[in-house]
Amino acid sequence: MPRIDEDITLLDDGKTLLQKKQGFRFGVDAVILADFYRGKKNSKILEVGSGTGIIPILLCQTKGAQNITALEIQEEMAELAARNVARNSLEDNIKIKNIDVKNLKEGNSYDCVISNPPYMTIDGKKLNPSDGKAVARHEICLTLAELVENAKRLLKPRGQFYIVHRSYRLGEILMELEKNGFSPKRIKNVYSDRYSEGKLVLVEASKGRKEILSIEQPLYLDEREN
Questions:
Q1: Which residues contact 32 (CB under 8 A, 6 or more apart)?
Q2: CATH number at residue 43
């Protein structure tokens, strides 16, 4: 049952998700990242920054994923994600860990790393590290550079890295990937509609393997004509 500060979000196939009424809630970026994933069913997957646990649950539900470790640095959110895994009977497929990815001692261990990370840089602003929304949205605990560095450390050779991020940071993403020996494999730009500038970008990259880059057809979140 949901607690007094929680509500229930209905997913497909009878799955449900507990979310905080006032805290950080998952958005469309998590859903489209799970859909963008192309790993094998038996891949050993690491998710960085799980929040409610929505991405690993969707990967099990829609991609048949069977072996996911999901990291969440905020204790309260990690506990919520674990309850969401249990309420959907996915304990055999998803393990939630309340740990900073930088402290995970498992080098060269995963076939895939996937992340919907904080999008916004600090830019000199003072933010409260105990504010759950601030940690989820701003690079207080994990920068883009740190995410890519740790993805390289944790992935097996030829492993795959999946990320969703703001479109305006694509140049920075590609620079960090190249610096860490990744080769971009697929890029998909995401737009609110056919009349808007790019909003989000999805990127798949390979560790230590040269890829021929595919720029996929764009995704329009609202296909309705004005």
A1: 164, 190, 200, 202, 219
A2: 3.40.50.150
